[in-house]
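User: I'm curious whether this sequence folds into something compact or stays loose and floppy. Could you predict its structure so I can see for myself?
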Amino acid sequence: MNPSLNCALCPRLVEFREANREQFPDWHNAPVPSFGKTDAALLIVGLAPGLRGANRTSRPFTGDYAGQLLYPTLQKFGFAHGRYDEDVNDGLDLVRCRVTNAVRCVPPQNKPVGAEINACRPFLINEMDAMPNLRIVLCLGTIAHASVVRTLGLRQRDWPFAHGAVNALPGGLLLADSYHCSRYNTNTGRLTEAMFHEVFREIQQRLDDPGLDDQG
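Assistant: Here's the prediction. I'll summarize afterward.
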């Protein structure tokens, strides 16, 4: 399900990884595994590890600004309990929820290229196949959305990204979208805490009342 620590699929990412290992030998500097149990009903898909976030700590969205918004939000809506302290040993546990990234290795400038997204897609396919209770996939940003749509064998033009949207896909899976919880998006006002909370409020309601699925 997860790539090896020395995955060689993407030459540019391998080169960047090796440079980071030399500069920051105490960091994770390897593909970042998913966080949470595979029996979860909700899968959150981000873009890629942050250089000083998950690439350092080895846990998605841990150690950077995006995690400061994501994990307290998960706690607020009952998808996590324990303390979030930007450290893999902080004792945080996820409930009915699993977190991963479309690209498992940190890319330069936080911008993976198309070939790298495609190379990592088999791991996302395996991820979703290994989740028997999966009901909702939340995509954080357009790249995660596009990768999930392709993972499911669907056409992007039929399922465009839209913040706050929840779409019932063929087969019954729900696809939810949110702007990525990055510092850039929150600083520019593209995404507010209230907007992010509303996304999770909707997801919580959908999981607690399966009858809402029929509304698309």
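Summary: The chain has a mean pLDDT of 95. Residues 114-129 form the longest helix (16 residues).
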